[in-house]
Design a protein that fits this description.
The complex is a heterodimer of chains A (79) and B (227). With 79 residues, chain A is α+β, with helices and mostly antiparallel strands. Chain A has helices at residues 16-27, 51-66; strands at 2-9, 39-45, 72-78. In chain A, strands 2-1-3 form a three-stranded antiparallel sheet, with helices on one face. The mean pLDDT of chain A is 95. In chain B, helix 1 crosses helix 5 (218-226). The radius of gyration of chain B is 16 Å and the shape is globular. Classes of the chains: A alpha+beta (79), B alpha/beta (227). Chain A binds chain B through residues 13-14, 16-17, 20, 40, 64-66, 68, 70-71, and chain B through 57-58, 61, 65, 93-94, 99-101, 103-108, 146, 148-150, 182.
């Protein structure tokens, strides 16, 4: 199964990269951008065929390595 | 005390650290490759600066999960001394051995410049050769030194007197201008509750000889050598 882990900085944690992207978008003439948050997407190709188990495994990986719980939150999608 | 320096792929400050340690102690530190797991005979484990594993995923994330870290956790549990500088501090937070995290500098710029550190307490093994409230010059060289932790953790660090150094001006005032990376409460370095683990972003090992432009960092290594 394929699991996609999306890692984002937690709400309230300053995201200077997002701010820089927002600034650059403004420079390019894109108006109406209230806010930009930048994160990471990690795709996992798993041998597991059970969706529930694949999700549990990916969540465990996210907790132990892929995301730093002090500053980041994550969500897992399985397909 | 007998020191060992942990070397991960991508670490680049281990030789400067070795010079600083040897200069104060007269003893060459042992270099510990990250795949080693035997730290016997080592009193002080030093995790130096650099870009371990290319800063992949997050600064220090890979190093914090490498084989030597289990031995370092055991060393800490036995009450052993640990010094983490720059990437070493990031690795200690990633390993959960010190609280909080180091984010990208608020300016988004890599900061390569001198700073002044205010000594928040001088009764630890690391800072016994400084005076409380004294400032000393140190070198910053980092892109991710913006210390962050939740309010409870910050309060606990302050309440427990576990803040080692704050960014300050030369006169010792922790002004916003002196806090170039945007760290919460101007925190440059913190201790573990038993005061045996110290992590800090700036590099005391960069100033241990007048030929380097100063010896402001030498008292830290002198104190460790004497302990």
């Amino acid at each position: 199964m394929k699991a996609t882990v999306t890692v984002m900085l937690k709400t309230g944690v300053l995201d200077p990269q997002g701010k820089a992207i927002a600034h650059a978008l403004g420079t390019l003439g894109f108006t109406g951008v209230n806010d930009v948050r930048a994160g990471k997407v990690i795709e996992l190709d798993l041998t597991e065929t059970d969706p529930g188990k694949a999700r549990a495994a990916a969540e465990d990986m996210a907790r132990k390595l892929l995301a730093n719980g002090v500053i980041e939150s994550f969500r897992v999608a399985v397909e | 005390m007998k020191a060992g320096i942990v070397v991960f792929p991508g670490i680049n400050r281990e030789r400067d650290m070795a010079i600083a340690l040897e200069r104060s102690s007269g003893v060459k530190p042992r270099m510990i490759w990250h795949k080693e797991t035997d730290l016997s005979g080592i009193d002080l484990v030093v995790i130096p600066g650099g870009f371990s594993f290319g800063d992949y995923l997050r600064c220090g994330a890979m190093a914090a999960r490498s084989p030597v870290m289990r031995a370092i956790q055991d060393h800490a549990a036995r009450g052993g001394y640990i010094l983490g500088v720059c990437n070493g501090f990031q690795i200690l937070t990633e390993a959960g051995m010190l609280p909080g995290a180091l984010l990208r500098n608020a300016s988004l710029r890599f900061l390569s410049m001198d700073c002044h550190l205010r000594v928040e307490r001088a009764d630890t093994t690391f800072t016994a050769r400084y005076q409380r409230g004294q400032t000393f010059r140190a070198v910053m060289a980092h892109g991710d030194g913006n210390y962050i932790a939740d309010t409870d953790t910050l309060d606990r660090l302050e309440g427990g007197n576990l803040i080692a150094f704050r960014y300050a001006d030369a006169a010792g005032e922790a002004t916003p201008d002196a806090n170039r990376n945007g760290s919460a409460r101007a925190i440059a370095g913190i201790y573990s509750p038993n005061l045996r683990v110290l992590g800090l972003m700036p590099h005391p090992e960069d100033l241990v000889d007048p030929l380097m432009g100063g010896a402001d960092g030498k008292p830290l290594f002198d104190a460790l050598a004497a302990a």
